Amino acid sequence: MYRNGGLIFTLLLSALLISCGTMRPGSSRSVEVKLLEHYQEWKDTPYVLGGLEETGIDCSGFVMMTMEETFGVKLPRSTREQMQEGSRISKRSLRTGDLIFFQTGSQSYHVGIMVGSFRFIHAASSGGVSMDRIDNSYWEERYYLSRRVI
C-alpha cells in the first residue's frame, strides 16, 4: 500500500520511464527509480531505534529492508556490520545504490543509500525516513566511508 501520495508518484515515474524508452534493469536510472519508489512508501516514517515497521524504523533497518525488498540484496542488521559488506569505494566514486556511512559520535555511525547526484535516503533520528544531500555541511563533516553492494 502506498502512503503520502505514492500512487501519484508511481504513475509519474511510469510515465517518465515510458517517455524515456526502455532502460536496462541494472542501469543507474532504473536503480534510482526503484529506490525512489521504495522511499515514497516509507517517507516520513518515524525513527525508532531497533524499529523495523511502518510505525518506526532506524537507519540500518531501513537500509537492510530497502536493499532486500528492492534488489534482493541481504545485508546484516547493524550499521557496523553493513560497513563490512560489498567493496569499499571512494566518495568521488559514489553512484546510485551505494551505501554511505557517517560517523555521528565517537562510537556511533549512520547509514543511508545514494539515490542520485549528492542525494541519499535514510532514517534520521530527527525527521524519520527522509532524503538529504551529502554536501549539506552536517553530513559532509561526518562522512566516514562508502560501500558498493549492488
Q: What is the helix tally?
A: 5
Main β-sheet, spatial strand arrangement: 3-8-4-5-6-7
Q: Strand percentage, roughly? A: 25-35%
* Amino- and carboxy-terminal Cα gap: 26 Å
- Architecture of the domain at 45-148 in CATH? Alpha-Beta Complex
Query: What top-tier CATH class of the domain at 45-148 fits best?
Result: Alpha Beta
What class would the helix/strand composition place it in? alpha+beta
What would you call the shape? Answer: globular
Gyration radius, rounded: 15 Å
Largest sheet: 6 strands, antiparallel
Report on this model:
This protein is an alpha+beta fold and 150 residues long. The protein has a domain of 104 residues: endopeptidase fold (from Nostoc punctiforme) (Alpha-Beta Complex). The strands form two sheets. It has a six-stranded antiparallel sheet with strand order 3-8-4-5-6-7. The chain has a two-stranded antiparallel ribbon with strand order 1-2. The longest helix is centred in the N-terminal third of the chain and has 15 residues. The two termini are 26 Å apart. About 11% of the residues have low confidence.
What labels describe this entry?
two-stranded antiparallel sheet; 5 helices; 8 strands; 150 residues; endopeptidase fold (from Nostoc punctiforme); six-stranded antiparallel β-sheet; alpha+beta
Strand-helix topology:
Layout: H1 6-20, H2 28-42, E1 52-53, E2 56-57, H3 59-71, H4 79-82, E3 87-89, E4 99-103, E5 109-116, E6 119-124, E7 128-133, H5 137-142, E8 143-148
Antiparallel strand pairs: 1-2, 3-8, 4-5, 4-8, 5-6, 6-7
Helix pairs in contact: 1-2
